[in-house]
Amino acid sequence: MVVRSPYRRKLIFFLVLTFFWFTADIILTYLTPLLAETREPNLALVGLIISMGSVAGIAADLFSSWKFSDRHYTFFYTAAFIIAMFVPLLLPFEGVLPVIILIMIGGIQYELFVFGQEDFLGHHIPKANHTTVSGLILMVTTMAALLTPLIVNPSLENLSFRFPFLLYIILLAAGALYFFVMRPAHKPEKTQRQNRIGFINELKIWTMLTKRTSIVFLVMLALMFLDAIFWMLGPLLSFEYASRNPELSGLFIPLYMLPGLFAGVYAPKIASRVGELRAAIGTLFLAGVFLIGFLFTEDLALLLILNLVSSIFSSATLPLIEGVMAHLIERLGDDGGHFIGLRGFATDIGYIIGPIFGGIIAETFSIREGFAFLGIVVAIAGAVMLALNPRPIRLPHKKLHELEEA
């Protein structure tokens, strides 16, 4: 499916911008477990440190949803680029605290960019194209994730972070320049209103939307739980196998990301048969099942195959559930910003409990077994959600308006 004009120009701009920004963010995501481990050798504590980024992200989501729910996506991109530039300033400082602050800044800028991405997808792309465009976004981010380890790994043999963070600065600067020079002119496409919603009412809105969209919320949470553990334990597993099998050890994260190049093609075909939401839950369940295989082998080649097959399914889950969320944002209209904040909240909860869970399991058992336990949790969650037989979602438009006017 091709996205027709007048959306095509905006889409091309958005995808190029996403490549610059996401490549920089992947560098940060890839380096933070290694950087944290150089300051704190206990993996359980490393997981706790990494989760601080999502704690900060929750605060950013709640504040953005409360105060900026009606802002245009360019507002969030501008804020994200400005905040991201503070990350390299913390590198010269020793100790754990600067790493925690760095990770928290990274969490805030990530959520701001995703807030803009969800606004773009929900309000500037036709409903019929939501899953397809989500697949294109995944394809671009996958290209970034495939390239990053190949470029960064050689400089990490001696745990030198100078080159990766220099590359981070260059990509951010290039992305910011591209954004400010090339961004399309826009007219107000949403009704701009003075935001008088009280903080307590914003929490009530989140609670109401969570109840009505609980199955969507849980799918996103489980997927981000899986993704967070992959990005925490994946680089550590590659480093663990590097001395035994240097040729294959660097393939773990690239193979995890590779199916994302094609998920935009096969995910809509699955959705056309069973519906987007059931397809998202089913593919999540299968992703967990194949990860359980990590319990039964230490052979790196077999681990890589299990990783690849699992990621074929989890890569489909993302555009499927993003498509469902984009439909909901579109249905909510000017109130969509509240749901975007809630979507970020689900992501951040996954990224808080994921690294903590992964760190504790890896410290107690092994990094490899951490992936197996991850598979057990995700498979059980998927099976339970499938058994609940998800039904059409009814949104509380009237109650939302009552809370906004209160």
Characterization of this structure:
The chain is mainly alpha-helical. It folds into two domains: 179 residues, MFS general substrate transporter like domains (Growth Hormone, Chain: A); 208 residues, MFS general substrate transporter like domains (Growth Hormone, Chain: A, Up-down Bundle). The chain is 78% helix and 0% strand. Helix 8 packs parallel to helix 12 and helix 8 packs antiparallel against helix 15. The radius of gyration is 20 Å and the shape is globular. This is Major Facilitator Superfamily protein.
Brief description of this entry?
Its main location: membrane. The chain is mainly alpha-helical and 406 residues long.
Estimate the mean pLDDT confidence. Answer: 83
Q: Compute the separation of the termini in Å.
A: 43 Å
The count of strands amounts to 0
Low-confidence stretches: 189-194
Task: Name the quaternary structure.
Answer: single chain
CATH architecture of the largest domain: Up-down Bundle
The total of helices stands at: 16
Membrane topology: Multi-pass membrane protein
Pfam families: MFS_1
Domain Major facilitator superfamily (MFS) profile: 208-406
InterPro entries: MFS, MFS_dom, MFS_Efflux_Transporters, MFS_trans_sf
